[in-house]
């Protein structure tokens, strides 16, 4: 069935996803602060506010702003927006700092992105961590979500796995948002099969997503053991795990974020990815959705977003 989504609905879906992404990022990064433990969160004790967001949210805000402005990704404009808005204290990795500095000082993005990691291009999480709202925006077409995710990824990530990570997350968010519009939750097997179908079958992210599907009824510890938890900060070691969590907890945002915190690893990024996908399905301030008190504790989003 094909249907029309009006611009306002697209933006509402993208903004709900961004709310989930940013709250996940901000809360997740609190577990790098000494004294905050996953056991506290499991017992319902939240860290003291405010929770500052990190690079994941800053870049995702640029993606959302680009869609609001143009309805699609203009790669040149997005590359410049990432470079000009990057605040150095937001936790960007060294590879991202270099690429963004090159772009800011006039190097064309294809050259800057290809130069990263001694000419291999980045297979880090940067493209995946910022893309869930884009997937929600294209809830009516997973192929459009995949193509636009690729465009948003390649301005900083030239490695095929870095791009595949973004495509996987965007397609997951598109399917989640589509399920919300249809009033029908996609089950874990269908969600993960839909994601795998959008990826190059020769790639490691694809293999990981298929493995995540096989593990969908196993424990969190088993999933971490088989898939990773983002501690290697590559798309291969982060995206399959995050989609396992999102597929498992698609109707329960707080449970999904608690799973990321319990799993450890690159928690701000895993919680940002998972939060962006799950909130595309649940929405905000409703049972199972992004809790209003979590959003109140999160640092406000940048003023330039509005
Ligand atoms: Mg971060």
TrEMBL record:
Q: Could you say which residues bind Mg(2+) here? A: 54-56, 266, 268-269
Record InterPro entries:
ADP-ribosylglycohydrolase, Ribosyl_crysJ1, Ribosyl_crysJ1_sf
Required co-factor? Mg(2+)
* Cofactor: how bound: Binds 2 magnesium ions per subunit.
Keywords tagged on the record: Hydrolase, Magnesium, Metal-binding
What GO annotations for molecular function exist for this entry? hydrolase activity; metal ion binding
- Stored SUPFAM superfamilies: ADP-ribosylglycohydrolase
Q: What name does this protein carry?
A: ADP-ribosylglycohydrolase
What taxonomic lineage is listed for the species of origin?
Bacteria, Bacillati, Actinomycetota, Actinomycetes, Micromonosporales
